[in-house]
Amino acid sequence: MPASRTVLLIVAAISFALIGVALYLQHAHDMLPCPLCVIQRYLFLAVGIASLVGAFAGKIKAGAGVALLAALGGLGVVGKHLYVLANPGFSCGIDPMETMLNKIPTATLMPWLFQADGLCENATDGLLGLSIPQWSAVWFVLLTLTLVWVLARRAR
């Protein structure tokens, strides 16, 4: 069994790698992120940062707890995104959420990472048989289960 600290470091690495994949798809394949995609990026980063801080600060349970909250938030956001894809008439489109997201300081300082430009209902391009929001759901589920496991196991 791996140590909880190691598991948190793996969770952080996966979260940051997923952001890397998102950036690759955005910049190399012109898959523009919609507002819900950008919120998912923030939540993947929150999972990664909380896991990293928890692992290095020795606060395994606290880091896993905060990361779990972010992962659960991600599940909620990706659930809405999948609903939008299943019901194309219901779009997040160009709305106040996009305008608000694009005015957050992180979006103005790092538009290449956090600027929302796409439509949520257009996120149907697939990768290995699943759409990007479906992959996001898979990863949020896996990260959530892993973090629950970290919280549920006894400290050594």
UniProtKB/TrEMBL annotation:
Keywords attached to this entry: Cell inner membrane, Cell membrane, Chaperone, Disulfide bond, Electron transport, Membrane, Oxidoreductase, Redox-active center, Transmembrane, Transmembrane helix, Transport
Residues on Periplasmic side: 25-42, 80-134
InterPro entries reported for this sequence: DiS_bond_form_DsbB/BdbC (IPR003752), Disulphide_bond_form_DsbB (IPR022920), DsbB (IPR050183), DsbB-like_sf (IPR023380)
Disulphide-bridged cysteine pairs: 34-37
Pfam families, A to Z: DsbB
Membrane topology: Multi-pass membrane protein
Spans through the membrane: 7-27, 39-57, 64-83, 132-152
UniProt topological domain (Cytoplasmic) ranges: 1-7, 154-156
Protein name: Disulfide bond formation protein B
Natural source organism: Massilia haematophila
Native organism taxonomy: Bacteria, Pseudomonadati, Pseudomonadota, Betaproteobacteria, Burkholderiales
Gene field: dsbB
